[in-house]
Amino acid sequence: MAECGSCGDSIEKGEEFEHLGRTLCEDCYLDALNPPKACDPWAVHTAKSSMAQGQQLTPLQERILMLLKDRGPLTAQEVMSELKISESEFKNNFATLRHMELARGFKEGDKVSYTLFSC
Ligand SMILES: [Zn+2]
């Protein structure tokens, strides 16, 4: 019986798929065909959070991410006044987003702006 080259499950005869020289089960084959899009933070988030075993964003972290998605890049000041949060709230929550590779800061002249990681 064949074994999936990705997850290691045994595959029923006739249900194996070839992908880039590997034999995969149907689930892994579909995953391989549909990798998360580079500029879709939600797909990337879903992929990453399943790896991190269900690590969830807080509502505030999602709001920061949505704001950056719609309006970014923004400075910390702009994010804080838009969401009415303090600097420490922003820093703490942004650290999580950066750690999960969902958002990042970058230097623009002498100020720091924040944007989505993958765009
Ligand atoms: Zn598999």
> Helix segment count?
5
Bound molecules: zinc ion
H-E string: EEEEHHHEHHEE
Structure class:
alpha+beta
Describe this structure in words.
The protein has 119 residues and is an alpha+beta fold. The protein folds into 2 domains: 2-33, no CATH class; 41-116, Arc Repressor Mutant, subunit A. Helix content is 45%, strand content 20%. It is built from 5 helices and 7 strands, in the order E-E-E-E-H-H-H-E-H-H-E-E. The protein has helices at 26-33, 41-51, 59-71, 76-83, 87-99, and strands at residues 2-3, 10-11, 17-19, 22-24, 74-75, 103-108, 111-116. A 3-stranded antiparallel sheet has the order 5-7-6. Strands 1-2 form a two-stranded antiparallel sheet. Strand 1 and strand 2 (10-11) form a beta hairpin. Helix 3 packs across helix 5 (87-99). The chain is elongated and about 60 Å long. The chain starts with a strand and ends with a strand. The mean pLDDT is 84. The structure holds zinc ion. Residues 4, 6-7, 9, 24-25, 27-28 line the site of zinc ion (ZN).
Task: Pick out its properties.
119 residues; alpha+beta; three-stranded antiparallel beta sheet; 5 helices; 7 strands; elongated; binds zinc ion
Summarize the structure.
With 119 residues, this protein is of the alpha+beta class. Helix content is 45%, strand content 20%. α3 packs across α5.
Helices and strands, with pairings:
Blueprint lengths: L1 E2 L6 E2 L5 E3 L2 E3 L1 H8 L7 H11 L7 H13 L2 E2 H8 L3 H13 L3 E6 L2 E6 L3
Antiparallel strand pairs: 1-2, 3-4, 5-7, 6-7
Helix pairs in contact: 3-5
